[in-house]
C-alpha cells in the first residue's frame, strides 16, 4: 500500500470514528485497526494524533463547503437554500452536529493546528455566506445555531426554524 492510499484510508477511518465517538475517545490503535494500515505506516503518514485530527478536519471542510456551495448554486444562489441543504444534512443517519464545534468542544486550543483548522472552516463558511448575501452574518449565526440545536434535539426541522427567522428578519 502506497503513502497516498494509506493516507486516504487513515482519513476515512478517522472521519468515521472521530465523528461518531469523538476525538478524545478514539485512539490511534482504533484508527489503525479500522483503516487496515500498519502502525508504522500510520506514523509515517501522520506523526501525531493532532496531525491526523487537523488533516481530517481540513478534508471535511473542503468536502462540506463544496457540497453546500454546489447545492446553493443549483438553487440559483438563493441564500435561503442554505437552510434546505442543512435540513437534508441534519436528516442524514448518524448526524452528530458540526465536527468542528464538536472537536473544539473537546480540544479547545490545546492543539494550535487543530484550532486553526476549525477557525479556517468557520471563517470560510462566513466568507461564503457574506458573498452570497448582504445578510451573510445573520445567516451564519442562524446556521451555527440550527446545527447545534439539531444535534441536541435530533430534529432536522431546526434548519427550517432558522430559515423562517432569517426570512422574517430580511423582511423587516
Model description:
- The mean pLDDT is 96.
- The chain starts with a helix and ends with a helix.
- Helix 8 runs antiparallel to helix 9 (158-171).
- The chain has nine helices and no strands.
- It is elongated.
- The chain is mainly alpha-helical and 172 residues long.
Helix content: over 70%
| DSSP strand tally | 0
Low-confidence parts lasting 5 or more residues at pLDDT below 50?
none
Helix/sheet category: mainly alpha
Features:
mainly alpha; 9 helices; 172 residues; elongated; single chain
What's this model, at a glance?
Helices cover 77% and strands 0% of the residues. With 172 residues, it is mainly alpha-helical.
List the helices and strands and how they pair.
Elements: H1 3-21, H2 28-35, H3 39-45, H4 49-74, H5 81-90, H6 99-107, H7 112-132, H8 136-153, H9 158-171
Amino acid at each position: 500500500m502506497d503513502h497516498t492510499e494509506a493516507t486516504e484510508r487513515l482519513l476515512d477511518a478517522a472521519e468515521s470514528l472521530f465523528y461518531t465517538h469523538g476525538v478524545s475517545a478514539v485512539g490511534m490503535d482504533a484508527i489503525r485497526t479500522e483503516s487496515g494500515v500498519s502502525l508504522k505506516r500510520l506514523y509515517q503518514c501522520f506523526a501525531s494524533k493532532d496531525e491526523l485530527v487537523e488533516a481530517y478536519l481540513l478534508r471535511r471542510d473542503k468536502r462540506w463547503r463544496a457540497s453546500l456551495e454546489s447545492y446553493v448554486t443549483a438553487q440559483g444562489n438563493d441564500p435561503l437554500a442554505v437552510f434546505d441543504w442543512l435540513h437534508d444534512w441534519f436528516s442524514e443517519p448518524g448526524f452528530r452536529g458540526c465536527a468542528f464545534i464538536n472537536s473544539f468542544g473537546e480540544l479547545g486550543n490545546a492543539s494550535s493546528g487543530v484550532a486553526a483548522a476549525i477557525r479556517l472552516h468557520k471563517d470560510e463558511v462566513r466568507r461564503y455566506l457574506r458573498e452570497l448575501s448582504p445578510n451573510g452574518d445573520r445567516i451564519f449565526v442562524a446556521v451555527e445555531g440550527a446545527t447545534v440545536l439539531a444535534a441536541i434535539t435530533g430534529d432536522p426541522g431546526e434548519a427550517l426554524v432558522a430559515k423562517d427567522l432569517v426570512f422574517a428578519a430580511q423582511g423587516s
